[in-house]
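Appendix B: complex inputs.
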Amino acid sequence: MAAAAPPPPPAPVPTPPSTVPEGSTPLGFPVFARIRLAQPTDVPHIHKLIHQMAVFERLTHLFSATEASLSSTLFTSPPFQSFTIFILEVSSQPYVEDILHNNNPLYQPKVQVVNLDLPIDDPERVTFRSTGSSSDVVIAGFVLFFPNYSTFLGKPGFYVEDLFVRECYRRKGFGRMLLSAVAKQAVEMGYGRVEWVVLDWNVNAIKFYEEMGAKILQEWRICRLTGDALQAYGNGH
Amino acid sequence: MAAAAPPPPPAPVPTPPSTVPEGSTPLGFPVFARIRLAQPTDVPHIHKLIHQMAVFERLTHLFSATEASLSSTLFTSPPFQSFTIFILEVSSQPYVEDILHNNNPLYQPKVQVVNLDLPIDDPERVTFRSTGSSSDVVIAGFVLFFPNYSTFLGKPGFYVEDLFVRECYRRKGFGRMLLSAVAKQAVEMGYGRVEWVVLDWNVNAIKFYEEMGAKILQEWRICRLTGDALQAYGNGH
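Resulting structure:
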């Protein structure tokens, strides 16, 4: 659905391997998480991620996007001016110099090391192997956002349409990392707000958002004109 | 606030002057309503309209837009690709050929005649006299919208951020005309949705929107990260 899925709670405090006493079992499994701009070659993976989101939200009956419809409507403007996607990748190894994913001067990929208690068993690592990267790099999630506008502030903001992390990567801080990357971009561009929506019964997500400083606007409701009603109204009914 | 104000209910059925029986008092006062793309010279009027909206919503403490902030953030992209404003003008006379407002090939102004029972007494007609038009043309309202994106549909839509009609022009069908112009544009561009928000206690507006075929999404809440919280989160907190 047209909405940000709840991000996982923050990751546990990382345990750097260097602090593990000699002779004991290492506690941490480092994961190298990278956020980068999506590019047209990512569309097959993006399509699969959106479908997984539709399954998660039990809304597959509303899912009609195809790789072709995504390809023809995304990537039509420079990043941040219109629809923009950040891809979240994970790897057990540091990223090697990566011309394919480093060549956009508007956004340098950001890498963060996350130390996990247990290794992640990803049953779909072959399906989600990142195009053009070493075999170890896997796509774990994405965030789609675009500029919105506040007439009261007289300046733009960002609206987060979708935030999704694949199941086996949840509850490790990756959702927060994606949302934080959008907020950081908004601050860098001097934008006034970042907004998204949440389901009113999703108390865990609401608590998480409030703890990060977001306000939940209780009085506003979204109105949607679509399908036949849009056609009729747009044609002058 | 970042939201569409409720539009007035539809205008009464027009009474063409030709149907008035001879000898009786004419019932209709025709008003020529025109919807056109805003341009940079409209910014002073747009700024005043937004301020009136803030007064109407009792939210002037949140109003910080200036003519300069509007000028530097609007009109940075071609119409419909990013933030787009339709201006509503009214005149008691037909529009003469108007090079200034007819020169955008992406949108030809649309004129509609509305027959009113009583003439409109506009106390601000001098302030809102349209720039570059004959003295009779007055700006009565605006709608600001921009593309949003549905990953489930795999295509864009429009989000209506603000819809405002000045007080003396309300309840005559002009709000509906502005919203309809956005819907028509969405249909022409093959877009999948038009969305906006409404206050949950505004039962008249909700009824009006439902009658036009819109769905009110009851379960979703808007989350907003702004001000110091955005700065803190964007800077890595």
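Strands of chain B lie at 29-37, 84-91, 110-116, 138-150, 155-165, 193-199, 215-217, 220-226.
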